[in-house]
Amino acid sequence: MDDNLKIVGKRVVRSDSYAKVTGSALYTADLKLPGMLVAKVLRSPYPHAKIISIDVSGALKVPGVKAAVSGFDAYGVKWGVFRYTQDHAMLPTDKVRYIGEDVAAVAAVDEETALEGLSRIKVEYEPLDAVFDPVESMKDGAPQIHNEYKNNINIHVHIDVGEVDKAMAKAYLVREDTFKAAGEAYAMMEPYAVVASYANGYLDLWMPNAGPHVRAKALSNLLKIPLNRVRVRHINSGGAFGGRSEVAPGDLVASLLTIKSGRPVKLVLSREENATSSRQVHDIVATVKTGMKKDGTIVAKDYKVIYDGGAYSSTGPIATSIPFYVYEECYRFPNVRYNGYRVFTNKGIRGMYGCHGRAFLAGNEAQMDMMAKELGLDPVDVRLKNGLTAGEMTATKSKITSCGLKDTIIEASEKTNFKKRWKKKEKNRGIGMGCVAIMCGFPMGFRSGSSCYVKINDDGQVTLVTGLVDNGQGNESMVIQVASEVLGVPMEDINLVNADTEVTNLDPGAYSQAAAYVGANAVKAACENVRKRLISIASEKLGVPESDIDLKDRIAYSIKQPDKRMPISWIAREAFFRGEPIVATGSFFPDIDFEREWVTRPWGQMAGTFSFGTSVAEVEVDYETGKIIVPRFTAAHDCGRPINPMAVEGQMEGSIQQAGIATITEGNVWYRGFLLNPDLLEYKVPLACDMPEIDTIIVSSHDPKGPFGAKEGGLTVRMNAYSAIACAFTNATGILFEELPLTPDKVLNLLEKNKGVK
Amino acid sequence: MILPKFEYKKARTIEEALEIYSQYNGEAFYLAGGTDLVPLLKHRLFNPKVVIDIKGIEELKTITKKGGNLLVGPNATLYELKGTPEIQEKLPCLFQSLDATSCETLQMRGTIGGNIMQNTRCLQYNKSLEWRTARGFCYKMGGKTCNVVLNAKACYSNYCGDNAPSLMTVDAKARIVGPTGERTIKVEKLFSGDGKEPFTVKPGEILKGIIIPLKETKGAYEKLTVRGSIDYPLVGVAVTIKDGSAKVGVTGIGPCPRVYELKEVNEKEINNIADKAYEDAKPVLNAVLTPAYRKKMVGVLIKRAFKRIEKGGSR
Questions:
Q1: Domain count, chain A
Q2: Label partner for A185 (CA 20 to 30 A): which of A173, A218, A581, B55?
């Protein structure tokens, strides 16, 4: 069946496109419920201060204010993704830890009244010394942000494989460099919003989220409401990029307000609040030491990486690990030591990001090119030499099942004439290559798998029910396409019910790159079970063996005698007559080592499979102004079999913008605890006119366990595009970058410091 | 972020606008395109009792040629102005600065008057009330300190208009009308040099017109930004050469654009002016790129603009 696909692998129009381009798709801020109130949040003006008292009574005296809450109205439960990271009360009662932290909130009949209410809330603080730099924060005597974490070290991930020191001593060439990168803003198109409605003991919520089940679980804990009474509902999401996987303070705020007021409550953050008070991306300082043989073989890697974690743990252990893993899943490291520290500072909460780890990954790749040059090798050969292949194990014992890394390197370099241009470069111009691998899913306990329920309705149309989440990347359309392929009905005949904790089963969500490999696999399994039932009845009715029946265009037919045929709707009706409607479930659980733990046992099978990618950037550097221009960008991606190549290409293009061009424009700018660019004017998301000519190359491979051979689509580019830019910069100038983003001031500074370098 | 409450009045004539202004004792703002004003209001940087819409005043919209000058109504949009053949043919510096202003969508909304009279900007000023309250009010917000430069005696906010410096290089004048009558001044005289109150116009005065001499010129506008569109200039340099002499306008650093004159156009003069403009530029840490870099770029862009003119204007 795989080799004769009708819909999978085709460039179909996504199921959500029409609604989104015509503006009829609803997002959280569009929701209107009867009697709904507007919420506003009072935020901390201090980076670090003890809370002496919070008095919301003044707000309640304002006509139109229906509820006012602070952390004293909650249960004092602290949330953490892990048992050992439960440090986030969402509404604090002990102290505030960053400027913009949620302190109190009101719900009122309109926004003006809510603002008036906020102005009547009295909070007494005792300011404390604050710390904003993670390196300073680790020192003895620095202000202690949480009592539980010595030296403000939130997470320390320590990995030690082989004998690093010995191998380093024997290496032909050793190099150590330190790379920095400013944290980025997620800059989702949709600022965070949540609608909460509490009635009859049930709490219903709508918000852009990447995993409704984990959201509901967190709120159930925070509010001490049984899990089945917290229902996170489906709504379109205007982007997540890793920043919406976890419960948000606004979820608790809106929930408390609807419970208090008995009316639905809507909270919509401003663009500024979305930047200062939802989630931000880690600033990183990465020290990379590499030992190489004369032939370019990497013999040892020694890493120290410091992540600025902001005020709370968030997805800390994962964030501290991922940059390392996506790199060790790409290259062979016989000896490797990784010390990753996530450190608290008095800044906004830092979360996972689709482009997480740019200082580390771009640093590794650019350094590799410098070493290759010294050894008289080129980037292509060094990457091919050290790249992992199918069947190999990573340093931390994950088996690579399918691997198109080599093909992506070769295709991207041939397409760009890389070798020749890297060696004989034109003045002021450079070309660079970045590689990476991405795990398709990671250990999340019993939430690592997905299941799907399918029913065939009496008109032959299909309803799919799955926990799978779509944050804009096209996951919903993807599973409809998969179901359409298996069931032989057009995509428009398939209704999807998804990401609703009341009716759908557990799913890993859309933040571990598992949607295609896990979510779509479960949908495929369920549809195959339905297909068996359809074929069984058709075989009986048409009088041909089951093996002779195929489904196509809403029809079941005999392959040998095509005039023997019947509509699928007739089969469905027949099944209803028999009192056995056609319904089926299917599930998929990836082959992961569940003993694996981010801090205590960082080894074992990470994911069911891995995707691979190679990006090639071409840059021009203006030596007078320091401005970098990116005329062309080529990305090659092994995503297994692309279910919808057009959607994969869209993801790749978006990644070139968000990770690639952002390398020269994007970074948060701080003055102590104040975010200076919490807006889209001064935070420089690349614009259409800044985009290069793009070549996307899908290296179609076939993953043995992926649905129709598919793996995740697009994320590799998100984690290697900055490497390509950094390497191209090094090729153009002969200089390693020190800090990202490579804005013109930083570039000119580097050029002046390194005058005479060739 | 919602707008604060204010009354909205639409004036049909300049007289009517001035009358409303005095009725509200000056607690008023004039609204033309709104691209500068509306964000300021949303941030609660101003809380007027009334916003007087002057968009509908016909005489403020016209672009006419008269006696060797182009008379431009301040409510002409940047896009309309950019499309004016006389500007395209004779005033390349102005054409380029119009073209470099924000993006075309905003050029269609934003007016030349509003663009010239836009308020000065600072990373620590153009923020929400909540942000600024947490940070503490600076000079420009009525406070007693500068949040960027320790112990500063004045406000270092940046004037970021793209077109005032080009207008200065082509000797444009501004006609101002107000409660006490009408006057015509050079465009450079619109600027006070004080970041707190960047303009010399008196309360209630309206920019009535811009007089642009239509002489054959060569010119170029160089604008430094991180992105290819939308951004305000981190440094902007306007150069116009006319009858063998030249004028250079510099914008984006400090509270007013500065203009320089070259008696002759030769390498020595260009270098002198580039050095002088570099000396005069006093950027501080209130934009997204470092002050040292922005200062350096003043000289670089001046030389670059002249070089580009020499090569026939192409980039």
A1: 3
A2: A218
**DSSP letter for each residue of B167-228:** HHHTT-EEEEEETTEEEEEEGGGGB-S-SSS-B-PPTT-EEEEEEEE----EEEEEEE-SSS
A668 touches chain B (CB under 8 A): no
> Tokens at residue A549, please?
């029946």
Whether residue A741 is preceded by a cis peptide bond, meaning omega within 30 degrees of 0, is yes
Is A689 within 8 Å of B127 when comparing Cβ atoms?
Answer: no
Q: Is residue B141 part of a domain?
A: no
Are the beta carbons of A684 and B228 separated by less than 8 Å?
no
Give the tens place of pLDDT for each residue, A666-685: 999 999 999 999 999 999 99
Q: Which helix (H) or strand (E) holds A718?
A: helix A715-718
Task: Give the 3-state DSSP-derived string for B236-270, with helices as H, strands as E and coil as C.
Answer: EEEEEEECCEEEEEEECCCCCCEEEEECCCCHHHH
How far apart are the C-alpha atoms of B130 and B292, rounded to whole Å?
30
- Each residue's pLDDT tens digit, A139-170: 999 999 999 999 999 999 999 999 999 999 99
Query: pLDDT category, A426, cuts 50, 70, 90?
Result: confident
**Same domain? A222 vs A304:** no
Interface test with A, best of B225, B278, B293 (most A CBs within 10 A): B293
Q: What is the pLDDT of residues A29-49, one digit of tens each?
A: 999 999 999 999 999 999 999
Nearest Cα residue in chain B from A625? B297
**B38 touches A: beta carbon within 8 Å:** no
User: Is B290 touching A (CB cutoff 8 A)?
Assistant: yes
Burial of A137 by CB count in 10 Å (0-12 exposed, 13-18 middle, 19+ buried)? buried
Note whether A43 and A104 are same-domain residues. Answer: yes
Say yes or no for a CB contact (<8 Å) between A743 and B228.
no
Q: What is the pLDDT of residue A669?
A: 97
Q: Give me the CATH number covering residue B224.
A: 3.30.465.10
Q: Does the model's pTM come out above 0.95? A: yes
| pLDDT tier, B315 (very low <50, low <70, confident <90, very high otherwise) | low
Q: Is A162 among the domain residues?
A: no
Report the CATH number that the domain containing residue A534 is assigned in CATH: 3.30.365.10
Nearest Cβ partner of A625 from B134, B224, B290? Answer: B224
Q: What is the 3-state secondary structure (H, E, C) of A205-268?
A: EECCCCCHHHHHHHHHHHHCCCHHHEEECCCECCCCCCCCCCCCHHHHHHHHHHHHHCCCEEEE
Please check whether residue B146 lies inside any domain of the structure: no
**A739 in B contact zone (CB under 8 Å):** no
* CA–CA distance, B168 with B166 (Å, rounded to integer): 5
Q: Tell whether B124 lies on the interface with A, counting CB pairs under 8 A.
A: yes
Residues A617 and A584 in one domain: no
Subunit contact A749:B293, Cβ cutoff 8 A = yes
User: What is the structure's pLDDT at A1?
Assistant: 42
- Give the integer Cα–Cα distance in Å for A666 and A661: 8
Which residue, chain included where needed, has tokens 């401005």?
A627
Which among B128, B228, B229 is the nearest to A270, CB-wise? B128
Tell whether the model's pLDDT for residue A719 goes beyond 80. Answer: yes
Distance CA A249, CA A247 (A): 7
- Read off the pLDDT of residues A555-597 as tens digits, 9 standing for 90 and up: 999 999 999 999 999 999 999 999 999 999 999 999 999 999 9
Q: How far is B103 from chain A (nearest CA, A)?
A: 10
- Smallest Cα distance from A208 to chain B, Å: 19
Closest Cβ opposite residue B135 in set A271, A674, A684 = A674
pLDDT at A2 over 60: no
> A-B interface: how many C-beta pairs under 8 angstroms?
79
Nearest CA-CA partner of A100 in A271, A283, A282, A318: A271
